[in-house]
Amino acid sequence: MTQPRRGRPGHDQAAVLQTAIDLFNRHGYEGTSMGDLAAALGVTKAAIYHHVPGKEHLLAQALDEALDELDALVTAAASAPGTAYERLRAVVRGAVDVLVAHQPAVTLLLRVRGNSPVELDALRRRREVDARLADLVRAAAAEGSVRADLDPELVSRLVFGTVNSLVEWHRPGGELTPDALADAVTTVVFDGLHAGAGPEL
Amino acid sequence: MTQPRRGRPGHDQAAVLQTAIDLFNRHGYEGTSMGDLAAALGVTKAAIYHHVPGKEHLLAQALDEALDELDALVTAAASAPGTAYERLRAVVRGAVDVLVAHQPAVTLLLRVRGNSPVELDALRRRREVDARLADLVRAAAAEGSVRADLDPELVSRLVFGTVNSLVEWHRPGGELTPDALADAVTTVVFDGLHAGAGPEL
Which of A60, B95, B129, B138 sits most deeply, having the most CB atoms within 10 A of its CB? Predict the structure, then answer.
């Protein structure tokens, strides 16, 4: 057994976590064992357990990586200056940024179905984020800047469904920059596809 | 062993298929055995094999259920009267209808990753549908009815990403009728969330 990064536990823990997220996404959480993780990292199971108490701890850390970012995003939006419309548009843009920057962790989060206490806790945190997003849609509709003919909860689901669907096809390092992707998403969602529907043409 | 629906093979085959799709969605294709399927239907494995040659055949049938509908939708749109914009808007609406009417099969299709020849064939058919959707977006941009400042392939991915994201939360028989859902999706995608045209607030 080799421990090439011994003495750099922080780095090791991050590497273990990112490899675990990758395996969870490819083979499922249930389909991934600590032995698989050790094999992928080229170390023994004992070396893994030196860094993390177990598989469920890795899942919790992975889900927290995505949820902490989304939580920070909606918290910042709640107290930011500007109209509800400006803050909502900034949150949609920020959600694209979070997804691009943390795509493996967000992908894992979106697949969580509540099969364990860790997953149930992640779902609870995700619902809290969703509720605060719906509040922002409601505030924008109340100020008259977002169409009021659609239910705010439904709008929130559609908008963040659009953002979340990026994990299905977006590949890091592709031709599309994160900024161009965020522009495209916010343009379609807020200004619409119809030529002349929005202010940008 | 009982065979309550003996003599109604068509009905039996449909029931077997829908139960298989449900199990594949809940436990994964790999995580579902023909024994699980027999147990869920309350019959013996031999009775299942009386109706279908095997698990992969069920997967192929399930994916065809969704793909045949989507294929018919884009084929009809290609030869329908009206502008490209009208046909594109009808396709988006139709895609919501297909998703609602065949939600389990569409959910299964969206999870296919190409792990077998059957899955690879489904991915090939899905890419064909996507390409024809992008053609329609391109035609609508060329006629000037859809904004031309966004790449048609990207627009197609975002629009159908929005439609596909419905499988994550839409529950059949809920408060929202299929028509209201299709209205909401087409309104957000084509007209945008921003209240009215004109300068941004």
Answer: B95
pLDDT score, position B178 = 93
Q: What is the DSSP string of A121-177?
A: HHHHHHHHHHHHHHHHHHHHHHTTSB-SSS-HHHHHHHHHHHHHGGGGT--TTSSS-
The answer, for A24 touching chain B at a CB cutoff of 8 Å, is no
CATH 1.10.10.60 domain span(s) along chain A? 9-52
Query: Residues 131..170 of B with a Cβ closer than 8 Å to A: which?
Result: 144-151, 154-155, 157-159, 161-162, 164-166, 168-169
**Could you tell me the CATH superfamily of domain A60-191?**
Tetracycline Repressor, domain 2 (1.10.357.10)
Say how far apart CA B56 and CA B71 lie, in whole Å.
21
A176 to chain B: closest CA residue = B154
Tell me the chain B residues in contact with residue A155 when contact means C-beta distances shorter than 8 Å.
Answer: 184, 188, 193
Residues linked to residue B146 through DSSP beta bridges, in sequence order:
A194
CATH number for region B9-52: 1.10.10.60
Name the segment(s) of chain B with CATH classification 1.10.357.10. 58-191
Domain B58-191 CATH assignment equals 1.10.357.10: yes
Which residue in the set B31, B145, B195 is minimally distant from A195, CB to CB?
Answer: B145
Distances (CA, A) of B195 to A142, B17, B162: 11, 45, 20
pTM of the predicted protein model: 0.87
Instruction: Provide the number of CB pairs (under 8 Å) joining chain A to chain B.
Output: 137
Q: Identify residue A201 by its one-letter amino acid code.
A: L
pLDDT in tens, chain B (201 residues): 444 444 444 558 889 999 999 999 998 898 899 999 999 999 999 999 988 999 999 999 999 999 999 999 999 998 899 999 999 999 999 999 999 999 999 999 999 989 899 999 999 999 999 999 999 999 999 999 999 899 999 999 999 999 999 999 998 888 899 999 999 999 999 999 998 643 333
Structure tokens at B151: 């790449």
- Among B residues 75-114, those touching chain A with beta carbons less than 8 Å apart: 85, 110
Tokens of A36: 């698989």
Q: Which of B150, B154, B198 sits opposite A199 (nearest CB)?
A: B198
